[in-house]
């Protein structure tokens, strides 16, 4: 069922032509534009963290991250809708055969979870943060699933959706708290900006870890599908 | 040419070549393995561009989680196809 | 030649390869991979743009945008794969029906 020769030629021509236009556009970009580096540097003292990328993610452009956690939640809900249940406990662990993975998992998974915690702490002042921490913990959960252990699939039909939505809900709670307090959306008061960011970072870590591991698990169809 | 720039050039060309092979190799399994290689090379490129945050995220998410998802999907489709072929005696 | 130029041009090249793959590859998993290649190339371009001047510190705003983008990309990939599996389970197809297929 391959595309016909004409369609392939047309697709090659179209994408090639677009490529040429895009390269021309890229070459015309001003080479010495400072971008927003200086602006971020100037405002960094007002943010609750000292690492510029974390400050942009969770302070200056926190609404981006807020909506992104929403996208993650929606994708997970979509996968669960396709599976037609929020109960993942019927998933049989995949159990890749052989002793290597099983033994390795016992050693590596705790180290990965620890690394995740370290990355989360690191994010306030150095490269690292909630996304990387959540991703590493999710990878540990997926590895454990592949080694035939229950990780995310041990969560029941109440605990799993609750954890899945916790990041989005926490983020929203902070946003409402600030709105009711008379500030703009996710505009933190400088005095407690650091504390609010830590709360949100914890929530984002849980959301990313449970969301990604849940997406992996939820891709497994039920037995009757 | 400076060695640093040469490294960037080689890395960039490798990225392009691997992305080409991902869509050109006939075996789906090989394509997924190449896709994971692409993710890891991309993490290297991000590190070269002074973006360690993104390099970390790309290695864990782009190569790791996406790779696991794709491998799992390929394995599932192939198992299912074998099962269907046994039952129906037909490739479809 | 600067690193910005090298990576920006290669990013466009990878985008082109991915777009062509998305259009001509019949298998749904290949389409998902092609879409991911396109996404990754956009991330590479944004990160290269963040580093286009001689400033030692790159622009953190594109970096933050790419970080959110990576998570969105993996979310949509996982959902697409779940839909593709369901399609296969329901119809036995691993590709989209052609216009002249009676589906």
Chart the SSEs and their pairings.
The complex is a heterotrimer of chains A (225), B (92) and C (103).
Chain A lengths: L4 H23 L9 H7 L8 H9 L1 H22 L15 H24 L7 H17 L12 H22 L12 H26 L7
Chain B lengths: L2 H22 L3 H21 L3 H37 L4
Helix pairs in contact in B: 1-2, 2-3
Chain C lengths: L2 H22 L3 H22 L10 H32 L12
Helix pairs in contact in C: 1-2, 2-3
Which percent bin holds the helix content of chain A? 55-70%
Q: What is the arithmetic mean of pLDDT of chain B?
A: 90
Which structural category fits the helices and strands of chain B? mainly alpha
Describe the oligomeric state of these chains in a short phrase: heterotrimer
Tell me the number of strands of chain B: 0
Unreliable sequence segments of chain B: none
Give the DSSP E fraction of chain B (strand runs of 2 or more residues).
under 5%
Mean pLDDT of chain A: 88
Percent of sequence in beta strands of chain A? under 5%
> How far apart lie the N and C ends of chain A?
25 Å
The main β sheet of chain A shows up as:
none
The main β sheet of chain B shows up as: none
Shape of chain A: globular
Q: Nearest-angstrom radius of gyration of chain A?
A: 22 Å
Short description:
Chain A is an all-alpha fold. Chain A has helices spanning 5-27, 37-43, 52-60, 62-83, 99-122, 130-146, 159-180, 193-218.
Structural account:
The complex is a heterotrimer of chains A (225), B (92) and C (103). Chain A has helices at residues 5-27, 37-43, 52-60, 62-83, 99-122, 130-146, 159-180, 193-218. In chain A, helix 6 runs parallel beside helix 8 (193-218). In chain A, 38% of the residues are buried. Chain A is mostly helical and 225 residues long. Chain A is globular. Chain A is built from eight helices and no strands. Chain B has helices at 3-24, 28-48, 52-88. The longest helix of chain B has 37 residues, at 52-88. The radius of gyration of chain B is 17 Å and the shape is elongated. Chain B starts with a helix and ends with a helix. Chain C has helices spanning 3-24, 28-49, 60-91. The mean pLDDT of chain C is 90. Chains A and C meet through helix 1, helix 2, helix 3, helix 4 and helix 8 of A and helix 1 and helix 3 of C.
């Amino acid at each position: 069922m391959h595309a016909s020769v004409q369609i392939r030629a047309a697709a090659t021509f179209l994408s090639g032509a677009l490529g040429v236009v895009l390269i021309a556009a890229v070459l015309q970009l001003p080479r010495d534009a400072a971008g927003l580096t200086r602006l971020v540097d100037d405002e960094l003292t007002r943010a609750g963290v000292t690492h510029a990328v974390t400050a942009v993610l969770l302070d200056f452009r926190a609404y981006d991250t807020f909506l992104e956690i929403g996208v993650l939640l929606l994708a997970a809900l979509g996968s669960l809708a396709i599976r037609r249940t929020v109960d993942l406990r019927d998933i049989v662990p995949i159990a890749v055969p052989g002793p290597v993975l099983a033994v390795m998992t016992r050693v590596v998974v705790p180290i990965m979870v620890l690394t995740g915690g370290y990355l989360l702490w690191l994010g306030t002042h150095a490269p690292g943060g909630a996304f990387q921490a959540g991703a590493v913990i999710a990878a540990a959960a997926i590895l454990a699933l592949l080694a035939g252990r229950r990780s995310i699939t041990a969560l029941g039909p109440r605990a799993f959706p609750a954890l899945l939505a916790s990041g989005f809900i926490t983020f929203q709670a902070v946003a409402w708290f600030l709105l009711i307090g008379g500030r703009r959306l996710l505009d933190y008061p400088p005095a407690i900006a650091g504390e609010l960011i830590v709360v949100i970072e914890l929530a984002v870590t849980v959301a990313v870890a449970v969301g990604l591991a849940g997406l992996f698990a939820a891709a497994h169809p039920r037995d009757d599908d | 040419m400076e060695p640093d720039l040469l490294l960037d050039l080689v890395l960039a060309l490798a990225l392009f070549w691997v992305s080409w092979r991902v869509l050109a190799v006939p075996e789906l399994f090989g394509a997924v393995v190449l896709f994971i290689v692409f993710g890891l090379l991309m993490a290297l490129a991000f590190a070269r561009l002074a973006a360690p945050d993104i390099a970390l995220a790309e290695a864990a998410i782009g190569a790791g989680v996406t790779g696991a998802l794709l491998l799992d999907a390929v394995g599932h489709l192939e198992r299912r196809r074998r099962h269907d072929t046994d039952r129906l005696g037909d490739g479809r | 030649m600067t690193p910005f130029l090298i990576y920006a041009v290669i990013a466009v090249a990878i985008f082109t390869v991915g777009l062509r793959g998305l259009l001509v590859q019949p298998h749904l998993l290949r389409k998902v991979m092609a879409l991911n290649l396109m996404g990754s190339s956009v991330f590479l371009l944004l990160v290269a743009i963040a580093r286009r001047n001689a400033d030692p510190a790159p622009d953190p705003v594109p970096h933050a945008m790419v970080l959110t983008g990576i998570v969105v990309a993996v979310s949509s990939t996982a959902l697409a794969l779940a839909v593709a599996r369901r399609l296969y389970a329901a119809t036995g197809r691993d590709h989209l029906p052609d216009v002249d297929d009676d589906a």
